[in-house]
Amino acid sequence: xxxxxxxxxxxxxxxxxxxxxxxxxxxxxxxxxxxxxxxxxxxxxxxxxxxxxxxxxxxxxxxxxxxxxxxxxxxxxxxxxxxxxxxxxxxxxxxxxxxxxxxxxxxxxxxxxxxxxxxxxxxxxxxxxxxxxxxxxxxxxxxxxxxxxxxxxxxxxxxxxxxxxxxxxxxxxxxxxxxxxxxxxxxxxxxxxxxxxxxxxxxxxxxxxxxxxxxxxxxxxxxxxxxxxxxxxxxxxxxxxxxxxxxxxxxxxxxxxxxxxxxxxxxxxxxxxxxxxxxxxxxxxxx
Length: 287
Hints:
Layout: H1 3-37, E1 62-65, E2 68-71, E3 76-78, E4 81-83, E5 104-106, E6 109-111, E7 132-134, E8 137-139, E9 153-154, E10 160-162, E11 165-167, E12 173-174, E13 180-182, E14 185-187, E15 208-210, E16 213-215, E17 235-238, E18 241-244, E19 263-266, E20 269-272, E21 278-280, E22 283-285
Antiparallel strand pairs: 1-2, 3-4, 5-6, 7-8, 9-12, 10-11, 13-14, 15-16, 17-18, 19-20, 21-22
């Protein structure tokens, strides 16, 4: 082999090795960057009526149909996302109804599975005639020693439960130490509307017993819509929903203050649109 051909071959190999090395270094750099900063964030899912290419683009409960996201069968559009109102705890029976933390959504109704005779332990499991749901199980209060006459009313050792009364028992006891005996019934004073905070202290209609106090969940920021459901800072509880009143035309600055159709809500104040314009959502536009 002559010297010119040898020099050409050497340059070719060197260039090829440099290209390969560059590619390897580039790939390694991509791996390091991905490991350091993570993969790019996935785009938010597409809401109802937003354009889509595939059903996977749409939020859960929706599918891509006619280039737009639509709710699947059995689902309802709640602010752009699709939910099954018969089983969704945060949207039970209607978009704006949320079940309490201790409740489940059964056929569109919030139910406490621990004491609901129609949904005892599991949605749809009803107790038989003459039975009562106690602590998520159906029982006969007429002869159950642990639930004698009322859920949680326990007969003492060696005593029997007959016709809902403890025989040979000096004093009925509550099986659960967290419950309090009110008459012959063991109740949770923290959440029982008829015995809220103390025996026989009943809450007024339209209120709930939350942490031992009767509260109006339609307007209470600490218990908005349900016990324990607190609103974030800067939001008010309006009709049981945590509402951002700084820019809400239906609750502008305070609950119930509605801006007219020629005004928008800005920093909690209704401001009139320029002459000849109307409010479109919370922006001014030409009619």
